[in-house]
Specification:
This protein is α+β, with helices and mostly antiparallel strands. It is about 30% helix and about 20% strand.
């Protein structure tokens, strides 16, 4: 194994020291003292040196080649002077502590290597991690979940060719080459990429489990990408699932096409058009999709000793959800809906639902797709009340209705993240988790997001700040503004009540509101029974004159809904601006000012029973 030494310095903010000595830790944990440096000193931190252009050997290569990749080293500096704090993690004055640190470094799984092959297509955050030893940052990656074995997975493999033969639309056939055609796969990968090796930490204990179920095997050829793998706990709290950090591969290849995942509101509306349903889910669904042996070379797992190659779809690869969703759509075509590995077969009557279930069962058997019952019921059982994708449906009621899954609502309302955010002091990670739940809740309960303009605005600002930030930045404490907390508290009360949402729309009759705006004026006309009954118009002046045309169109709609004298009966609005129509349909806008106007409009429309 080639070891590249480098003089990589990091300036200590505490001031100059007296003739420091740089120490660089080798792969085997030993160190050597380099010549005395100047007043700069390295203190246990991953640093980059200038690109090497001496034609030296890359680690694992049999011949020398020119390398422009940065070299990553772990530099352990000399102790800080007395009185200086060890904020960065100084080793201390006692030389024995430095020796002890070096001995501890030797015991880290996989060793500490000099990463000569850090590719340009991998962001620097891939090689950063939270300090886990005094005086150093151990890169790369996170620790696996200690003590949690991998969940048992199926060894069944889908017949993807038979599944493609059922595809009457051709959407699954478009992505099938990514599983079976090495030439097509290689054509989407940057030819200059590859060669990176990022070792996994703590994954050796799972090697036998991955071998036994055929998920992965030892690599007898060098992987094109040897990437980091880790595990995350499953919902049962006793087992974990395997995830591949496939960012090197994702960055080196073209992104996937549309996933064809239905919008959650369209999903709910389609379910509520039926009376009966049967639900099931794929067993270890991603692992049922086999990958061609030549394509497996792109899905290497960096491991201590011998790397491994994945032979199935994995979480972490950008194409995997698209392939799985399109395959699921083939199985439920004209029968129901699919949400990745959740299958829902629908019917307007009990007989129709049972016929559709029989067809779905034939398709799964022909394609060798293994499924299991979901929600504790029996497999192939047809029912009218069930929980699917976090939504509880009651199709047996006189008017079909739905609401949030009560168990999910309880976890979100009473979670530690919600408590921290409402207190005003939370980590960015906690806020992101709570905000994601807020988006989901407003979608399921059909609450317009424009009512939460301050929450959306704060989330947008925080998201912009966190783009490209280091992983540890998500654990920094942030101050949540009072306006954001008030809106989130109001939403929390609604979710705590978890009301049923009843379907149905107003009849297509009654009054019609026509609104329009130009760069300098606006107008709103109310029509009822074929004649004009009311109208308003105005001129934009002052600061409003310079507003965007979409905002002016929203203003015209708000004025018409709030101020006109509406006739009794069902009422509708007609607007000729696509941006306004889209914002009303979504219930929110990317503009804070538009959200304020939209919130005002929707509240007035709800009071007057106006269909926007």
């Amino acid at each position: 194994m080639a070891v590249t030494w480098t003089r990589a310095w990091w300036r200590w903010t505490g001031g100059p020291t007296t003739r420091p000595v740089e120490r660089v830790v080798r792969v085997d944990g030993r160190s050597r003292a380099d010549e005395p440096g100047d007043e700069r000193q390295a203190f246990g931190r991953w640093v980059r040196k200038r690109p090497r252009v001496d034609g030296g050997k890359r680690r694992g290569d049999g011949c020398g080649r020119r390398s422009l990749s940065p070299t990553w080293v772990l530099a352990v500096g000399r102790p800080q002077p007395a009185g200086r704090g060890g904020r960065v993690g100084g080793v201390g004055r006692d030389a024995s502590r430095l020796a002890g640190l070096q001995r501890r470094l030797q015991g880290i799984a996989g060793g500490l290597a000099v990463y000569d092959e850090a590719p340009d297509n991998v962001s620097s955050s891939t090689y950063s991690s939270t300090p886990s030893l005094p005086g150093c940052r151990v890169a790369p990656g996170r620790r696996a979940d200690a003590g949690l074995p991998l969940a048992r997975v199926t060894s069944n493999r889908i017949d993807v060719e038979a599944l493609a033969a059922m595809d009457g639309v051709g959407r699954f056939r478009e992505v099938l080459p990514m599983l079976v055609d090495p030439v097509a796969f290689a054509g989407l990968v940057d030819g200059a990429a590859g060669g990176c090796r990022v070792p996994s930490r703590g994954m050796e204990r799972h090697r036998d489990a991955m071998r036994s179920c055929g998920v992965a095997s030892d690599a007898h050829v060098r992987p094109v990408f040897a990437m980091k793998a880790f595990t995350t706990p499953k919902k049962d709290g006793r087992t974990s699932r395997l995830v591949l950090d496939a960012r090197p591969l994702n960055d080196a290849m073209y992104g996937p096409p549309s996933m064809d995942l239905p919008n959650i509101r369209d999903f709910i509306n389609e379910v509520k058009r039926h009376r009966f349903a049967m639900q099931c889910d794929g067993v270890s669904y991603f692992y049922q999709f086999p990958i061609h042996a030549s394509i497996s070379r792109y899905f290497g797992i960096g491991m201590k000793g011998c790397d491994m190659l994945l032979h199935v779809l994995c979480m972490g690869w950008s194409w995997a959800p698209c392939i799985a969703q399109r395959a699921s759509n083939v199985l439920v075509r004209d029968l129901g809906l699919a949400w990745v590995d959740n299958f829902l077969v629908l019917g307007g009557s009990l007989d129709e639902a049972q016929r559709n279930v029989a067809v779905f069962r034939e398709r799964t058997q022909a394609a060798r797709v293994e499924v299991r019952a979901e929600g504790g019921g029996a497999l192939w059982e047809v029912c009218s009340r069930f929980v699917c994708v976090g939504v509880e449906f009651d199709l047996a009621a006189e008017t079909q209705r739905h609401r949030l899954d009560p168990s999910w609502a309880e976890r979100w309302v009473d979670g530690s993240g919600m408590t921290a955010v409402l207190s005003g002091r939370a980590t960015a990670r906690q806020f992101a988790e709570v905000f994601g739940g807020a988006v989901w809740a407003t979608d399921i309960l059909a609450i317009p997001r424009c009512h939460f303009a301050a929450l959306l605005s704060f989330a947008g600002r925080l998201g912009g700040r966190m783009v490209g930030a280091a992983a540890h930045s998500w654990d920094e404490v942030i101050d949540v503004p009072p306006s954001t907390r008030r809106e989130l508290g109001a939403l929390r009360k609604t979710v705590q009540g978890n009301p049923w949402v009843v379907g149905g729309t107003a009849e297509d009759s009654g009054s019609v509101l026509w609104t329009d705006a130009s760069s300098w004026a606006w107008a709103a006309l109310l029509e009822a029974e074929g004649r004009l009954v009311d109208g308003r118009q105005g001129v934009f002046a002052g600061p409003d004159a310079g507003a965007h045309i979409n905002l002016k169109e929203m203003w015209a709609l708000a004025e018409g809904v709030v101020r006109l004298c509406w006739a009794p009966g069902a009422q509708r609005c007609r607007v000729d601006n696509a941006a306004v129509v889209g914002a009303v349909a979504k219930g929110s806008s990317s503009s804070y000012a538009a959200n304020r106007l939209l919130s005002r409009t929707i509240r007035a429309a709800d009071r007057r029973k106006i269909v926007l």
